[in-house]
Amino acid sequence: MTTRRDLLKIGTVGAAAIGLGLPALTSAQAQAITSLDVFVPAAPGGGWDGTARAIEAAMRADGILSEFKFEHVGGAGGMVGLPRFINGKKGQANAIMIGGMVMVGAGIANKSPVTIADVTPIARLTGEALVIVVPAASPYKTIGDLTNALKANPKAVSWAGGSAGGSDHILVGMVAKSLGLDPRSMAYVAFAGGGPAQAALLGNQVGAGVSGYGEFEEQIKAGKLRALAMSSEGTQNGVKSLKEQGVNVVLYNWRGVFAAPGITTAQRDALVALIEKMVNGPAWKKTLETRNWDGIFLAGDKFGEFLKKDIGETAAILKDLGLAS
Amino acid sequence: MVESFNLLMMGFATALTPMNLLWALAGVTVGTAIGVLPGLGPGLTIALLLPITYKVDPTSAFILFAGIYYGAMYGGSTTSILINTPGESATIVTAMEGHKMAKKGRAGAALATAAVGSFVAGTIGTLGITFLAKPVVDLALKFGPAEYFSLMILCFVTVSAVLGSSALRGLTALALGLFFGLIGVDLQSGQARFTFGVLELLDGINVLIVAVGLFAVGETLHLAAQKKHKEEVLEVKGGVGMTRDDWKRSWKPWLRGTAFGFPIGAMPAGGAEIPTFLSYYTEKKLAKNPEEFGHGAIEGVAGPEAANNASAAGVLVPMLTLGLPTSATAAIMLSAFQSYGINPGPQLLTTQGQLVWTLIASLFIGNVMLLVLNLPLVGLWVKILKIPQPLLYGGILVFATIGTYGISRSVVDLVLLYVVGGLGFLMRRFDFPTSPVIIGMILGPMAEQEFRRAMTISDGSLLIFIQKPLSLALLLIAATAVLGPHIWRLVQRKRMIRTN
């Protein structure tokens, strides 16, 4: 989706291209990136859009780049946008796409012909650990109480979270598996987004809930929900992690930046360098703080390796949940 | 109560500064415009305006957003009434009676009752936010999957109000709607249903596309298929205002519509469509001449329009008291809070009191602005109907196409629009009612999801629906609405036999 302001920008870029002559511009782009085409495979207003806008704001504030063009194609966990990005931007050195863990799962569950493995990984930017909560009136005081109840009867606790196969569901499946239970036996109730899931928890309609910490933060602070464990490596926000409490599960809902397929190694390195410059700047650090995001930065080949591992693990857990074959 | 009043006055002090008034005016104007356009809804508009949160202070930004939100609810009814093209899914019901009124030359009265009804409902709803937020939100949270499912069952009763002369045809249309609603990835199992490998269908079909296809495109094709082309224009009778009789017939539906809209809007899965269905059904049942429904009854515009606007106010209740976004637009407004580093939650009223009360005050102001803006526009809008019919309907087709493309800029949606439009034409041709399709499409998936959620929670026991008092009460009301008239008739007949 382009706004009018963006259209004006395209106008300026276009005018510059005519002035310089197109070949000059393309050769300049191979060395230094002067503008970014940001592709968001989700509707405006969501998490990926927030990441994209934050990148724009941070780069502008630190004077790294000032020309941005946005395009949004939402739907099916990014699976509608992904093929358009691949086909439309192939070989374009200044095009980036925002994506994340959700896309890995969506690609596997929907048996999509193209997946996140078909684009060029640039960097993992942020991560958000999930939190397991219970309503304030719940009899479960610790994660131990909850896991004991599950071991006695897997159906005893109903879980509220996002759509089936999403990160919340995956965490529930991982917890079940680590307890030696069948992930499919969990009473998982899928809600369309964090709002309705929170409402079900506040109204004591369900036994437990899973979501990104930020989503439940205010309810936890107000004492309406009790946080039992985080899915992070160690303690976060004063809540102990699952791992520290004897449940060997770690999961981050990560978000990152990808480039078009078919770009050269030099072009890829230029984008990695650009993102690295932003991450090390003061504006991005401030953004992480205000948004309460974990800066789990990982760039280039290392990110590529992580991605491969993540795809394999996600496929395995989705299979255990009965959502993929 | 007194405390709320004082805080509200403080809010007015901030909202009435010239700069903030200007933001409110900009918001309601933009809101009205996007409400008129099908496709471009308040959620998308606010999302596109999110970057202004980097430049503008929070109070002004929220005054602007709230203005857009309320404005869109006003604007959505205009195209429903004039050209049978709903701008928002919440105004689909308005199109049913509203457009019939327009065809009878009563477009002015329909637009006026919609505008005044929106004002009445918006003002009462905003008063509700001010003084009733706490009890309403407590009630709303008592609704779990079992209660929602029972509410949906009650809503299905409302289909009877639009079935038309043949129950078989009406129920066929309903089943078609249920089928449309099934298309897409199932939330509970993550599996795709009836998508035939089309990626764009994974998120389901937007109900607005089906409504515009059936109502606007279908009607245009029907008109074009008629042998004699009428070059005449629709006549506009009786001026643009409401007559004394119109006022008399409208005020009760306004209040009843508000009573449906506000609490249901406040429910986390309530939405704006359900109260409009319930209001329409109630007005038809209570009307002195129910046979007028389907041919342009003003009650059928006044009630649903009020319900729609009151629900918009209701949505803000859980958002401001608990930080719970219960509609797409509310979710985007919450993400605007977050980009200011304000975390909306149960403590929002205490930590950001100034901001929240200014926002509420600006809702009152915005409502007055919208009435002042919209009433004179009525006269302008009805002039659209003076365009000769072939040209008018050609324009409607262009308008519907652009609007649909605007929803997600997808070619698949355009193809769908015309396939559904062709279907709508056939349905008109063979005398099938089209409204049950929309009702089925909205209620079907909600009822299914809530039923399965309830079943997961109860581990497969159907008793959950009668063990919960609220759920049982709703089911009993639904049973009374279906069986009541029949039993009443039986009793009457017995009495007659006895007296004879």
Index terms:
heterodimer; A: 325 residues; alpha/beta; D-Maltodextrin-Binding Protein, domain 2; 2 domains; ten-stranded mixed beta sheet; 45% helix; globular; disordered N terminus; B: 500 residues; mainly alpha; 1% strand
Description of the structure:
- The complex is a heterodimer of chains A (about 325) and B (about 500).
- Chain A is about 45% helix and about 20% strand.
- In chain A, helix 1 packs across helix 2 and helix 5 crosses helix 12.
- Chain A is globular.
- Chain A has 2 domains: about 190 residues, D-Maltodextrin-Binding Protein, domain 2 (3-Layer(aba) Sandwich); about 120 residues, Periplasmic binding protein-like II (D-Maltodextrin-Binding Protein, domain 2).
- In chain A, strands 1, 2, 3, 4, 5, 6, 7, 8, 9 and 10 form a 10-stranded mixed sheet that branches.
- Chain A is an alpha/beta fold and about 325 residues long.
- In chain A, about 50% of the residues are buried.
- The N terminus of chain A is likely disordered.
- Chain B is mostly helical.
- Chain B has one domain.
- A two-stranded antiparallel ribbon of chain B has the order 1-2.
- In chain B, a hairpin with a 6-residue loop joins strand 1 and strand 2.
- In chain B, helix 4 packs across helix 5 and helix 9 crosses helix 17.
- The model of chain B has no long low-confidence stretch (mean pLDDT about 85).
Topology at a glance:
The complex is a heterodimer of chains A (325) and B (500).
Chain A: H1 4-20, H2 22-31, E1 35-40, H3 47-61, E2 67-72, H4 81-89, E3 95-100, H5 101-109, E4 120-135, H6 143-152, E5 158-161, H7 167-178, E6 187-190, H8 194-202, E7 208-212, H9 213-221, E8 225-230, E9 252-259, H10 265-280, H11 282-291, E10 298-299, H12 300-320
Parallel strand pairs in A: 1-2, 1-3, 5-6, 5-7
Antiparallel strand pairs in A: 3-9, 4-7, 4-8, 4-9, 4-10
Helix pairs in contact in A: 1-2, 3-11, 5-12
Chain B: H1 2-15, H2 18-36, H3 42-49, H4 58-83, H5 92-103, H6 107-141, H7 145-157, H8 167-182, E1 184-185, E2 192-193, H9 207-225, H10 244-266, H11 273-286, H12 299-322, H13 328-339, H14 348-351, H15 353-382, H16 389-408, H17 411-429, H18 435-457, H19 464-467, H20 469-499
Antiparallel strand pairs in B: 1-2
Helix pairs in contact in B: 1-15, 2-4, 2-15, 3-4, 3-13, 4-5, 4-6, 4-12, 4-13, 4-15, 5-6, 5-12, 6-10, 6-12, 6-15, 7-18, 7-20, 8-18, 9-16, 9-17, 10-11, 10-12, 11-12, 16-17
